[in-house]
Amino acid sequence: MIRKSVVLLAASFFAVSIANAQLAGYATLTVSRMSGISSSPYAATLASNSVEGSINLLGATLGGYYDFKTIGPVRLGVDARAQILTTKQGAESGFNGVGGHLYSTLGGVRGTFHTPFKALDGYVQGSAGLGRSDYGFSGVLLNPNQTGTAARIVLKNNFEYHAFVGLQLHVTRIADWRVFEAGYGALSGGGHTYPLQSVSTGVVFHFPSGQ
Length: 211
Description:
Elements (H helix, E strand, L loop, with lengths): L1 H16 L4 E14 L18 E18 L2 E14 L12 E15 L5 E14 L5 H4 L13 E15 L4 E15 L2 E16 L4
Antiparallel strand pairs: 1-2, 1-8, 2-3, 3-4, 4-5, 5-6, 6-7, 7-8
């Protein structure tokens, strides 16, 4: 999964590098909440009071973007990112199993705009792609036909989508502080939707120079 994410990011960078665009890479700490778990079809074999409604995940987001066209006050661009989010707390009350996992590979479009403060830029973004998750359930619950230990991680493929909004503070010519990024979206798969909320903060590096 990690190898595929890196290949996708590299391919995205190469595809738009010829456009002489503004390139930046970023790394952030991300906290996310996945909800809608207690109504998941995978929980149908458990008592309703045995499943938590949400799990909280923590991890990293790695990505990059190109801003390539200005329209009025907005600078348009594209973004590609990969997320690795985990938690030791599973959704099954009293039995954490292997915890919870969410591995995402997303691409999208973004618009950057200036704020009244010269050193502070805002942006909005829409992204979609592949999200692989166990939703906090044990492997046996997700795959009743498997043999062996219940601690096996079984990941399911989902369509994942998000809307993001954030603020970046220019620190040096080549580096920004991504003060915050808030996201709202969902995983959609197996006939069920799992809402996602996230908050991130981290660093952004511009190549070859800042905006």
